[in-house]
Specification:
This protein has 163 residues and is an alpha/beta fold. Helices cover 40% and strands 24% of the residues. Bound molecules: flavin mononucleotide (FMN).
């Protein structure tokens, strides 16, 4: 089984989650399975069509996937992912941890949503079959670090999904 984890990351937190997911997949599928973790700028278009499982993740920017991931998703030709299994994730701020005036703003941002459900809906439009609900992982502040335990949670999520 081939699995490809595609991520974007501005400050490195989403990359860490992507690598933890890659490790979780290797643990679930076995060492001889082909699991690759690749930044969005380095994905070759013809590689997409040969995957059994696609994992796509990005930082949430303005309640959407970051611009490089948004452009990548838009560039996938229709039906390239027909029948392919896929899961989507993002990194995001925990709006409930904000305080004071910013918390009010956070409430609005929370209602506007996060990147992962939008990634999932783009992948579905290209024909993919989502095999798990979109998942978000929490960063503390804009540049991180990740909240304690998120790398372990990401690896377990991937392992359970693949199993
Ligand atoms: C331009 C910009 C917009 C952002 N917008 C949001 C947002 O709408 N919602 C949110 O939860 N976090 C937002 N954030 C925080 C990012 O989610 C956070 O920086 C990211 O998860 C860190 O991942 P990275 O280290 O992989 O870049 C924003 C960050 C930046 C830089």
């Amino acid at each position: 089984m081939n699995a490809l984890v595609i991520y974007d990351s501005l400050y490195g937190n989403t990359e860490k989650i992507a690598r933890a997911i890659g490790n979780g997949l290797v643990a679930a599928l076995g060492d001889d399975e082909n699991v690759a973790v690749v930044p969005v700028g380095e994905v070759e278009a013809d590689r997409l069509a040969t995957q059994d499982l696609l994992v796509v993740g990005a930082p949430t920017h303005g309640s959407r996937p970051s611009p490089p991931m948004h452009e990548f998703l838009a560039s996938i030709p229709d039906n390239t992912l027909a029948g392919m299994k896929a899961i989507a994730f993002d990194t995001r701020t925990d709006m409930k941890e904000l305080t004071g005036f910013v918390r009010l703003f956070g409430g609005i941002m929370d209602r506007m949503g996060y990147a992962a459900p939008k990634i999932a809906s783009s992948l579905e439009k290209k024909g993919a079959r989502m095999i798990s609900s979109p998942e978000g992982f929490i960063v503390l502040g804009t540049e991180g670090p990740l909240r304690e335990g998120e790398l372990e949670r990401a690896a377990s999520w991937a392992r359970e999904t693949a199993a």
